Amino acid sequence: MFKKSLVPLASFILLAASVNAQDRYFTKTGKIEFFSKATMEDIEAKNKTVTAVLDSKTGAMQFSVQMKGFEFEKALMQQHFNENYVESNKFPKAEFKGALTNNSSVNYTKDGTYVVTVKGKLTLHGVTKDVEAPGTIKVDGGKLEGKSTFNIRLSDYKISIPSVVKEKVSNSIKIIVDTKLEPLKS
Amino acid sequence: MKYILCFLVAFAATDSYCQEENLLKGLNDDKPQKEYVFNAFKSSRVIMSHSMEMLQPGVLDFRILHRFGNVNQGISEFFGLDQATIRLGLDYGISSNLTVGIGRGSFKKEIDGFIKYRAIQQATGPKSLPFSLVVVGGSTIIGAPWADPLRKNYFSSRLGYYGQAIVGRKLSENLTLQVSPTYLHRNFVETAPDPNDLYAAGFGGRIKLSKRVSLNVDYYYVINQNDARDLHNPLSLGLDIETGGHVFQLHFTNAIGMNERVFLTETTNDWAKGDIQFGFNISRAFQLKKKKG
Q1: CA geometry: angle A30, A78, A75, nearest 5 deg
Q2: What's A24-183's CATH class?
Q3: What would the pLDDT profile of B74-95 be if each residue is shown by its tens digit?
Q4: Read out DSSP for A88-153?
Q5: In this complex, is the C-beta atom of A73 within 8 Å of any C-beta atom belonging to chain B?
């Protein structure tokens, strides 16, 4: 009696878990760029090694960004970014945990571009803040491309700009996310 | 049976809950990776000597070194500020491990040049070494008129060479230390007891006081100095202040001159007597070659 009912139950649970995995999409080479526009200088940096996961069933998503992965045009900027601003040794990663607020409006089985809103918590420089951003999800032959553009304020994340470089570093940073996600096979 | 069912349901629930909580699980390989250590010093010099830090590739570092006269000359010489010697230099980062530089100092109108190569870079993670090893080779040419124009003077007598190995370690975000055994050869020395080959041990370090300011110490112990000459070991103490593209190195020193030949062999000033000079180095970095986006 025990064993008989246990087997189908267990296989059901296992099945559920594997179905779960197939609902997930991921990348390890997502792109995140940021821009700072100040009166004297424009700064931009690009990171092409962003890890991202989206669960199509629940709309939950998560990003992990290595701060040292941001590449700048000027070596000195990159050095100062890591050492003086985001303190990459102390806070090596930025993370986002959130979800699509309108996941039901995305049909993951039908090609097309869907407008979405993402809401969640962004942890950067050791500070966690709520973030809400508009974006799109493009479904194309079983693969996804997620894009979003939003702004954050450095002061929210305790990243201070010394007065000597006020003209060169903006407090408002534009962030552009572009990730191509593939189904996660497990 | 009921209990097992409950248990399994509970287990399934926690399982899916965990998955929601950490979607990245299993994706993010948190395997330790080799990671190089950067920013051991604010600039490529501790104060007067080479630091374990290299220029990034494509960076041109314009260095303006300024040294005033002795502070203890009092108000009549405006504490040394009336006199000044300078060295103007250009350093260039050819690759992340190779830097070259030239400069000219007003003291004895001397031109100097160097090649600096980083053989080992301090790193963390697997297969990494906990220190950096940098080797520097340089040459100096005295341009000033001969002290004794009547004797037969050779151009080669103007030349000096130095070689240095810098072993350094960034011990923490705030503390860096380095040791640099140094060899200096002068083709021509003034008197017989002056050694043509000079050996010295350099010690340098910095303590970060804030993100943009550090306290630096730079010292050489000269091993076989000619004692008859009343020469002293050069010691510099200073603050590095970094403001975006510039690094200012404000310092006090007894060292005369601003290249290895001068400060190892001509430092007649003595800290104990208050023969110290105020000086500042300005480093301005220009990115000549830009990284491709």
Answers
A1: 115
A2: mainly beta
A3: 888 888 888 889 999 999 999 9
A4: TTT--EEEEEEEETTGGG--TTS-EEEEEEEEEEEEETTEEEEEEEEEEEEEETTEEEEEEEEEEE
A5: yes
Cβ–Cβ contact A176 with B under 8 A? no
Q: How far separated are the first and last CA of chain A, in Å rounded?
A: 32
Cβ contacts of residue B150 below 8 Å, gap of 6+?
A: none
What are the boundaries of each domain within chain B? 36-145+155-286
Interface mutation vs chain A, best among B2, B8, B24, most A CBs within 10 Å: B24
pLDDT, one tens digit per residue, over B18-37 is 444 577 776 666 677 888 99
CA-derived radius of gyration, chain A:
20
Q: What CATH number is given for B36-145+155-286 in this structure?
A: 2.40.160.40
User: What mean pLDDT value characterizes chain A?
Assistant: 88
Task: Determine the 3-state secondary structure of A41 from DSSP.
Answer: coil
What SS3 class is residue A86? coil
From B1's Cα to the closest Cα of chain A, the distance in A is 7
pLDDT at B13 over 70: no
Contact A76 B245 (CB under 8 A): yes
Instruction: Say which residues have a Cβ less than 8 Å from residue A169's Cβ, sequence separation at least 6.
Output: A36, A38, A41, A43, A85, A154, A161
ipTM score here?
A: 0.74
CA distance A74 to A169: 14
CB interface of A with B, residues 52-71, below 8 Å: 53-55, 58, 60-62, 64, 68, 71
Question: To 10 degrees, the CA torsion angle through B65, B289, B99, B207?
Answer: 60
pLDDT tens digit string along B216-261?
999 999 999 998 899 999 999 999 999 878 999 999 999 988 999 9
Q: Give me the residue label for tokens 């470089």.
A: A165
What confidence tens digit (pLDDT) does each residue in B116-139 have?
Answer: 999 999 999 898 999 999 999 999
